[in-house]
Structures are given as structure tokens and as C-alpha cells.
Amino acid sequence: IPQHLCRTHFRLLQMFMSVLHKIPFTLTKGSPFQLSLEKLQEVSHRLRRDMTRGLGKHSHHNAPVKMLPTFVRATPDGTEKGDFLALDLGGTHFRVLHVRVVEEEQKVLKMDSQICTIPTDMMLGPGQQLFDHIAACLGDFISSRNLKGQTLPLGFTFSFPCEQKEIDKSILIRWTKGFKCSGVEGEDVVKLLKEAIQRRGDYEIGTVAMVNDTVGTMMSCGYRDQSCEIGMIIGTGTNACYMEEMKNVKRVEGEDGRMCINTEWGGFGDDGSLKDIQTTFDVMVDEASVNPGVHIFEKMISGMYLGEIVRLLLVKLTEDKFLFSGQASETLLMPGSFETNVIYPFISEHSLENVEHILTKLGLKWDEVDARVVRVCCDTISSRSARLCAAALAAITNRIRNNRKLGHLKTTVGVDGTVYKKHPNFGEELQATVRLLAPACHITFMVSEDGSGKGAAMVTAVAQRLAPACICTLYMPLY
Known about the structure:
It is built from 16 helices and 13 strands. The protein has 479 residues and is of the alpha/beta class. The protein has a domain at 82-221 and 453-462: 2-Layer Sandwich (Nucleotidyltransferase, domain 5), CATH 3.30.420.40. The strands form three sheets. The chain has a six-stranded mixed sheet with strand order 1-11-10-9-12-13. A five-stranded mixed sheet has the order 4-3-2-5-8. Helix 12 crosses helix 14. Mean pLDDT is 87; it is low at 1-5, 18-29 and 469-479.
């Protein structure tokens, strides 16, 4: 606490900290948000158990952590080359890219890109409408960049839980991140995209490689660092992938080599295994979401939900008269009014003007103590997110080390996502915590350079390099 704060302010902050330890709605002992190292180790152990369930031939059906085979069997070796299209659908915006892989320079170049907004009503409307919108964006891009007449291979980043049958066939398991389009769950999204393009009839695409954004992140970093065998996203949503030993992937034939597994760790806790660390605020966020009971882990730590958790905590503290003289504004009471990107200025040491603007815009009457208490709230919720991410990442790195019977593992994690990139302290706390939880693993973190775009193209390039012995025909799923 800064020395210039008066004794009254000091007492108020002491009262606030005591509130964090005495909120009556927590299901845990002590602070509801400050998880001990022992508790994080326990969470990490639970995830490792669920990962094993997800890889099982029969147990995966009911596993909350889906552990989806991606049919990506190799990382880049530096000989890939050519021009590719990439589509990236994973949130409220959709991107189209032209990517060139230059073998001589071992570079993945983004030649051009275009961003299309996805209106809220389209996120909740018919699936055909959404895919027609995607096809229209792709067609406009091809036309405006003079790419018509070329039949370029396409990397399709579709960042939702899918059951991948082949490299170009992927069945949507369920929508997340606020999407609820009808007629898509249980369907092949590559087929839906191709049908939308055929309805237009004014352009063609080449082969399609279905790419999860975590896989794209790993592959884009793997082109620069061939020790990169893990991809992690911490943005609107959260997920991770890694290279698993084929002998452990019981759902797919084959014993030799490795395959990239899309963990879909956002579903961790969907079976109730995280109830002991969920707070009432987490439960409220889940119940108000478009998919209650689904992706519990993601709702505790990802960018789509962090701001709302903070807002609910601020409302509670205001009701208990610890903030804003007990007077909440209409804006603060409005769900979604405290977005996650609002957290960043509160934590930064150099954003006082932004903080003043934010609190005033929320219609609140505040003083310096209020601003500092809000900062502690933001920091506390963010810290829990980073530490839970670290527990999940430790589960993966410890599993890889044990799989390979290594006393010490050296690996690189490719990371993408706005929370990791823009939050002032998130990456530092995540890295510090994972070192404590996986002490026998030396982990390098590499920020992905457009994994969902360049990485998608790289997956497509690797698949082409491996042709005609295509990974999707060598390894077939077992049902």
C-alpha cells in the first residue's frame, strides 16, 4: 500500500481484504480467489486424470476434457513453401488471409488480410446464414486481392470444440464463446463452408486443412523453434494442444510416432470437479451464459468472462457499502458493462487518466480509495486466472515428461490470445507459477505471430508436404 495513503484509507483497504476472505458465498476455505500452491497442484492432478480419460477408446465419450485427435502428425521442417488462403473464425470477428511460405528464407509471410465483423444476431441465428457470411467475406477478399482464377489451398481455423475425423472433416461438438447458431452442432463444418462457397459459384478453393487455433499457434511457432510442441490460447476463450505419443491415443489406430491433441481444456470442470474452487460469482457467470454448465474452466479464466466476474464482485462490495459509498450506478448493474479490456488500465501503473475515465463513464461517484480497491479486485481475479492457467499447463508439461520418461524436459510453448498479450502481469505470473508446479520442466514461452492465420497455412503446407501419404488416410479414428 503506497505510503502516502492516510490511515483511514489503510483501514478501508484492510476492510476490503477482509471481505475477500469473508464473502459468504464461497465454497472454499479462506480467500475464494487466492488459491494455494497445494490447491493448484491438486487442480493440475485432476486435469491430468481427465486427460487420460479423454484419450481412452471408451472413456472419452463422457470425458469433460475431450482430448481430440487433430490428425496433425508432424511439425514444420523448413521445406514448406507456396501460397495459401487462411480463414480464422474464433470470436466476434472473422479474418481472411493470404499467406506465403518462403522456403529459402524460412519465413511465413502474411501478404494481406481482411477482418469481417460477425453481428450478434448472426452468432445466434441459422448456421447457413453464418457460413454464407464467411463465404461472402472470402469471395470479396479473393476478388479485391486479384486472386481469382487461382485455386489456393485453404487452412480453416475454427476455434470451437470439434471431433476431427480427418484433416478436412471436422464435426462441431458444441458452440462456445457466445455462439449458438442452429443446424451446425453435429455437422461437418468444412462441408458447410464448401456448400456456402458452391452456393455463390463465383470462385473455387483447393484442399482444406481444418485447424484449431491452438494447433495453428503451435505450428506458427514451430516453424521458428522446432522444440515447440505445445500451443496455448488465452484470449476470448482458452485452450491448449500438445504432441502426444500415438500409443496413448486409443481412439486412433497406430502405435508409432506422435499426434497433436487438441485438449479442449475449457471443458475441464464440466463434470463438477471444480466445484470446490468455484465462487458464487463464477456460478452467476455460468448461469447467465448462453451455455450454462459447459466450459466451466474457460468461464473462470478467459477474456470473455473475467470482466464480468470483476463486475459482479464490485456490485457485491458496493451493496455491502465497501465501495462507492454504497451507491451502484445503473451502468455498473448492467451485465457486460465491465469488459475484460477495462481490467488492464487498472493494473497498469501508468494509466491513472484511463482509470478516471472508466469509473466516470460507468456513472460512479468515486474517490482514490475506490479506484485502488477496484484495482485490487482486477488484480485478484486476473491472478487467479493466470495461476489456474499455469496449473493446466503444468499438467501438460508433466505429462509429456512422464510419457518420455525424462528426468528433465525442455520445451517451448507457443502462446496467443489478447489476455496473455495485453494484460500487464498475466504472462509473468503464469510463468512464475508453472515453474513451481512443474519444476523438472524448462519451458520457453514464444508469442505466436498470427497462429490462427500463418499457423493455419503452415498446417496446410505440412499436410501437402506429407502427401500422397496423407496423415488423414494413414490414421483412422476408432468409434
